[in-house]
Amino acid sequence: MICRKCGAVIRDGDKFCSKCGARAPSAKAEERRQNAQKRKQEKEITFRTKPAGSKGYRENFEEGENRSHALLITVTALVIMMLAVAAFALFYFMRRRSMAGGASYSSSIEIISDSGTVEQASTARGQSESGSEAVLQVQGDLPEIIRIDSSDEAKATAEGSADSDTAHAADPEASKETEQTEASDEAGMAAGGAGTEETEAPGGAGKAGTQTETEIETGTETETETETEKETEAPGPSAADVVDPARIQEILSNESSATTTEVYVYDLKHDSEAALNDCTQPMYASALITVPILYTAAHQIDQGAMTMDDQITYVTSIGGRGELTTELRDGLQFPLSFYLQTMVNYSDNNCINILIDYIGLDTINAVCQEAGYTSVNMERGLVAVDPQGLDNYVSAKDLTMMVKELYTGAFTSIGTDFMKTYFHISEGDSLPTLVGLAPDLAGATVLNQNGHGMTRYNEIAVIEDGNSLYIMTIMLHGDSGMTYSPAVTDVAQYISSVMKAPAG
After folding, report:
1. Alpha carbon distances (Å) from 42 to 35, 36, 334
2. Which strands sit side by side in the sheet containing 260-267, from one edge to the other?
3. What does the pLDDT look like over 84-99, one tens digit per residue?
4. Which of 213, 232, 251 is the last residue of a domain?
């Protein structure tokens, strides 16, 4: 077998490469990889073009299948749109028809004229087909006071008026006095009633209006209180209060032989930090150069110096970690977005080197340092041979704050959605990620990148666990990266446990 990282020959039965220490692929894994490559080759679609000088052209099976599928989708969409338009038209027609029917009711109007007599006018009120109200027709002099009663009350008033007219005819003198008295009383009652109803009507409307306003205000207050509760919902504990650097140092001292360490925790909810040692000093970056590369790409795309659609030729330059089937892709072109996504989703070594060549080491260093990340110093890509003294450097704090800018949306091209979708190493990594390293993180949302080598192990993760949201960066140097796994496990588990604990 051949080591996928350095290319050295691995003896049968060896679990690790004797040259670089990378985990040796099993025979089953190698067989699965070859089968996967074979399936990819079989699935490749080649579109037939019309031969030169030929009279006809017949599409191949894949073209016909794709064309049929597209036609089916188009026809389905058109049918759905036609059904929606028909349903809307039917609903609109039924609504107009119900409104055109209208409603009618009868009422009686008592008109008190200047002479003090009360005249009854029966009216009918309704709506025309156009929806406008019919005009009330009133006979006689213009009224001083008009009182509108319901149909039953109008009937009673009309009957009372008929009886009164009969009595007036039997005794003219008495009826005259009675008529004047009743007219005065009725005038007073009419005036009082009209005044009362005129007062009640606005009062009723005012009451309804007050109730509506109260309900709206109450609803607004409820929504405001709910939003306030969400805003004031107690976040998790502050990293500065609960993370103990001495405890981290104790774990590392007991479980690793690292000569240089930086552990940095940034709490996004409290804008606080906790650090073991001076986390601003440059450390060996290993595969975490993905962070300054991604940061520089976001800056350059926002500035218009490049676009996500820029086409870049794929070139195999190194083995090791990655997802791409390199022997099938050499010479092909893919957009910049493809390389950025694959680089962080699989920590793909070839994508890292292709992006370094495309963006340029000088550009990466300049963009990062001008942004205040002065520890960034990239001197080379990833190599499988002697790097001749060149290496890449960055501090734990600079890594953390670059990830913070990318995650919180400081750039329009690469932001929160991109990070949540791609900024985590998928299956196939030769080392476990933080989800496996720290059992307490099993229920949390974890975005991470890691890198390891003969003398280093680095890990960075964005962790959202309940009300806690923080970025944790661990950088160790001095021993084989494989030997650091237990120490990193316990450090990550300690930090996650105290950040999850209730505040106070």
Report:
1. 10, 10, 21
2. 272-276, 260-267, 468-477, 456-465, 445-452
3. 999 999 988 888 776 6
4. 232
- In the chain, % of residues over pLDDT 70: 62
**Is residue 275 within 8 Å of 245, Cβ to Cβ?**
yes
Residue pLDDT, tens place only, 360-404? 999 999 999 999 999 999 999 988 777 888 999 999 999 999 999
Beta strand pairing call for 377-378 and 392-394: antiparallel
DSSP 409-434: TSSSSS-HHHHHHHSS--TT-SS--H
Tokens of 419: 């990070």
Examine the domain organization and report whether 24 and 160 are in the same domain. no
Range(s) of the domain holding residue 418: 239-500
Nearest to 274 by CA among 249, 310, 306, 299: 249
Q: What local confidence, expressed as pLDDT, does residue 328 receive?
A: 72
Question: What is the pTM assigned to this prediction?
Answer: 0.55
Question: What six digits make up the tokens of 68?
Answer: 């049929």
DSSP for 14-56, written as a single string: -SB-TTT-PBPPPHHHHHHHHHHHHHHHHH------PPTT-S-
